[in-house]
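Order emerges. One example.
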Amino acid sequence: MTAPTRGRSIAAPLGVAAAAVGGAVLLHVRDPRTSTYLPCPLHALTGLWCPGCGATRALGDLTRGDIAAAASSNVVAVLLVVVAVGVWAAWLRARWDGRSMSLPRPSRPTVAVLIVLLTAFTVVRNTAWGTMFAPT
């Protein structure tokens, strides 16, 4: 069996990048602020903002380079994009060097902290004093 060529080894990261660029182009061309995408079921039923509410608008704002508007729609989505780009870059680098990449499994305390932070974010953005975290 022969070793995979560099082009074949980076095919998966490049495919993910192509899909992400395709999604970004869609959000840039069909602006979430003026187009109808699927509404959040929780918000539609209860009027409450879930942790993901505003993420589509935030990603659309990022395609226009408007970081402030993106953060005002969903700051968590903006942070996740930064993390995702970093993980993708590390994946591409590992594949380029001919290594496999495995992410460490988060510990239970880490998962618990993330759940608490997302819950706090959700509660705060649904209160009168946390409207700065509600989608705009």
The CA atoms of residues 9 and 98 lie 7 Å apart. The chain has one domain: 13-133. The mean pLDDT is 91. The chain is about 65% helix and 0% strand.
